[in-house]
Amino acid sequence: MSATGLPHAPRRRILVAAAGLAGAAGFGGLAAFRAIAASRGLVLRTRAGLAFGTTVALTAAGSDAAEIEAALTDGFAVMRAVEAAASLFRPDSALSRLNRDGTLDAPDPHLVVLLRFALALAAETDGAFDPTVQPLWPVWAGAAARGSRPDGDSLGDALGRIGWHRVRLEPDRITLVPGMALTLNALIQGYAADRVMAALREHGIGDAFVDTGEFGASGTHPDGSPWRLGLADPGDLASLAAVIAPFTGFAATSGDYNMSFSDDRVDHHIFDPATGYSPDSLSSVTVTASSGLLADGLSTACMVLGQERGARLIAGHPGCAVRFTDKILPAQRRL
After folding, report:
1. What is the 3-state secondary structure (H, E, C) of 249-290?
2. Would you say the C-alpha torsion 236, 238, 254, 132 has a positive or negative sign?
3. Is residue 113 within 8 Å of 88, Cβ to Cβ?
4. Tens digit of pLDDT for each residue in 57-79?
């Protein structure tokens, strides 16, 4: 499970291939794509910003420019609402307040949906996915700042405050055991992609590409071809390891390169709740699914479970597919 305490932890997890608008916009590609869309009687709009501690971008095409602009505005409003509910990058979010106070009355509906899903996935994976791993973050971040790994006492204390089954989720209240803290970072960007795509659909947008840090696509590219999504090579993040084509639905990637406590990536932001250490068999996992929430959660769970057990988990979710990248072993483990 992933956790965070940094205001701007790097979160770029999938590279958009050349056929994706966001990947080419910086090279003059967006103007060309707009021209292509116009030749087909479509208006193309892309809007970018910051959310969830990373860059985000929404792209939509259609016949009504005003409707597209309204859809993009609503898409960003949805992201802000999800952030206000469950982002640890915001100290005023409902989740941040829950972690500080230990209880939260009349919880935000977005937070309830996310936490209910998190607890269900924790039960399904026998705790390999656990939203209560947040106490591990300050232990690892503090040790890394000192150029070391956590000592046994610190790690043991954090592990003693982890346990998804101790979270009490009621219709009008969420309660944590004293000392516990939650993170939903392994779900929030995928869930945001779901909500943004739903907002675009409400405006009649059929052709869209959503980047909330995880990805969603519907319809087709402005030139009429299917959307494509390029997957970063964990060994060389400037290169692509594979391309998903056609790409529709949602995709999420968990990787050891997103936030590392060691240069060799042996220690990173994804924790095994049973040990307090990072899982060591995989460098990345990409899951495609019919929802971003499901793809996001499954990708993190698979990182902890490993390839064999992760494949069994995916097999239990019809319509999902997974790509595993074996761990790129360091020349020497940092002691």
Report:
1. EEEEEEECCCCECCCCCCCECECCCCCCCCCCCEEEEEEEEC
2. positive
3. no
4. 999 998 899 999 999 999 999 99
